[in-house]
Amino acid sequence: xxxxxxxxxxxxxxxxxxxxxxxxxxxxxxxxxxxxxxxxxxxxxxxxxxxxxxxxxxxxxxxxxxxxxxxxxxxxxxxxxxxxxxxxxxxxxxxxxxxxxxxxxxxxxxxxxxxxxxxxxxxxxxxxxxxxxxxxxxxxxxxxxxxxxxxxxxxxxxxxxxxxxxxxxxxxxxxxxxxxxxxxxxxxxxxxxxxxxxxxxxxxxxxxxxxxxxxxxxxxxxxxxxxxxxxxxxxxxxxxxxxxxxxxxxxxxxxxxxxxxxxxxxxxxxxxxxxxxxxxxxxxxxxxxxxxxxxxxxxxxxxxx
Length: 305
Prior knowledge:
It contains ten helices and 14 strands. By secondary structure, it is an alpha/beta fold.
């Protein structure tokens, strides 16, 4: 077999596996059985004569050969989709921008940037999706996102080590604070000592590999007592207002804080800085993507000021 035996179905499966990170998730997204996905990948590997994915606990990631084929697969599939739109007389999607973002960025950075873009005529057509850092990086690599807003902590390493290196533009630095009930002793004092809060009931949500419990102060001594779990940050803050526990947050990224919540600094621990980065594949952005980037920069500058 050779490259002439590579099929479009195989390329679509390749892209989906690269984006989803597991054969199971790719099969679910495509509406295939997992065995069908495995067969397509086996056929691709036979046709190319190369191993395309490395297996590891919890998923797969493209090998060097897999990344090389993926770049060509993305270009080929995009070209075919453009041809299909043209033949059907559908307006070309070159004005479309696909943005991914981490959850806390949605309410302020993303929403306000989109509001500013609505005043541009003609404005870019922006679609967005929320996701974890690994999922958004995979989507960038597989060509299903153009831009991603990611958060990083010192020493601010690149979100992945693949080639070519991702372009990372720092937009904004924020600092974590502790959200407490307005009638709590912490609110009255204005600060909270890290040893004192270690025993508090915490309101947290599932995070990534670097921060497994979003909402718990990083490096908290002992094992935190998780009283409530919630993915949504506004839900967490309403639980804080109800006196159900404490949680961490970046005040600059919260446009609306419920009554009954106060933010206090944590003492006895290192300051926790987070950086918001705008990440893309290397290369020149399209004009519509540039418009979105400028809107995000302006909003980040407003928040920093």
